[in-house]
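Sequence in, structure out. Go.
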Amino acid sequence: MSFFDSHGGGRPETYAAALAAAGGTGGCLQGMPGVSPGLLVEAARGFPGLLPIPAWPAAEAPVEAMLDALRDLGVAGLHLHPRACGAGVMRHLPDIFRGAAARDLAVFFCSYAFAPAAQRLPPDPLPALTEALAEAPGLRLVLLHGGGVDLLRHAEFTRANPGVLLDLSFTLMKYAGSSIDLDISFLARSFDRRLCLGSDFPDYAPAEVLARFDALLPGLAAEKRDNILGGNLRRFLHRDAA
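Output:
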């Protein structure tokens, strides 16, 4: 089973078809704020290869009740997107992280932090993530998009915290041709067991992400490639046998 992540919404059948076109058989269908968790789970039900990851709905959502609802849906984790659900959610990170860890829910955190100033989103989420993770040492945390231009700083944060996985989606595509290519190449060759790669569908199709990855990393050892393109995330989400 190959895992990619769909972070941008999109219809399940379209995403499933795009995965199949890339040779993949499974992926994480991540909701965005405004999409009901129950509806996302129901939409994914007809596609066994798609793992629904509902979004945290809004900055002021009641933490414990929301986490209970997600647990009762039987999902593997939640998608936390501060730019879309409101910067105020950052105040609740310790409670969300503690509660998610207690319910064995992974958190997929959007680490691309740049937004219009009026949103008052901290341009560096690492201090808040550090404080929240200290309160929830058992949490499984995926840093979506690898921190963008702060990729290496997020990689060092990941290295220091065993329960964290670093995703390269969006960043791999957005900064093609920049010095970040060197950072991605360095990490893929030296840090492969702590990386995963999403497609950020529908903004990018899985096939074009795969083509870009392989063009950037010719000759990458098969084991490292397999780790990044699915193995690490399967193990992280306890889907080894899927």
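Check: The CA atoms of residues 1 and 25 lie 5 Å apart. Strands lie at 5-6, 27-30, 50-53, 77-80, 106-110, 141-144, 164-167, 195-196.
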